[in-house]
């Protein structure tokens, strides 16, 4: 008689059939390797699906100097350190803070701070371009 557990654990040994210990260990290792491969494949498939779902629902947010946060403040973005970290400041006399992008929200009020002036880079001219000759 076959049971569902026979599919997972293998068929039980007949009473007159004996296995040596090394043979049993090798068989057990092979089955465990198969189970691990199966589990890794399923985890990879589901991980990819979750990542794809996250990518379709998330939006990329980027700030630039002069933008303000609206949770506390409004703070003004002083400088973008990298893609995820920004230096912000509440007022001209307050100490600047470095914060992660997830801790910022775009200011949607009508009166943004006017004390911070964004300086535009100088315009490029033919003389300012460096060329390899």
From TrEMBL:
InterPro entries recorded:
Integrase_p58-like_C
User: Where in this protein does the record put region Disordered?
Assistant: 112-133
Under the heading Pfam families, the entry gives: Integrase_p58_C
Top-level taxonomic group: Eukaryota
**Which residue intervals define the domain Integrase p58-like C-terminal in the entry?**
73-105
Compositional bias (Basic and acidic residues) at which positions?
Answer: 121-133
Protein name, UniProt field: Integrase p58-like C-terminal domain-containing protein
Species this chain originates from:
Aromia moschata
């Amino acid at each position: 008689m076959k049971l569902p557990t026979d599919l997972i654990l293998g068929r039980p040994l007949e009473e007159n059939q004996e296995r040596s210990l090394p043979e049993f260990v090798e068989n057990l290792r092979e089955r465990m390797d198969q189970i691990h491969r199966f589990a890794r494949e399923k985890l990879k498939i589901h991980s990819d699906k979750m990542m794809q779902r996250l990518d379709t629902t998330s939006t990329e947010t980027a700030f630039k100097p002069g933008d303000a946060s609206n949770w506390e403040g409004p703070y003004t973005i002083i400088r973008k350190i990298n893609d995820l970290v920004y230096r912000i400041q509440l007022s001209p006399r307050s100490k600047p803070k470095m914060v992660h992008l997830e801790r910022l929200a775009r200011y949607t009020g009508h009166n943004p701070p006017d004390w911070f002036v964004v300086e535009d880079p100088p315009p490029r001219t033919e003389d300012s371009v460096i060329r390899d000759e």
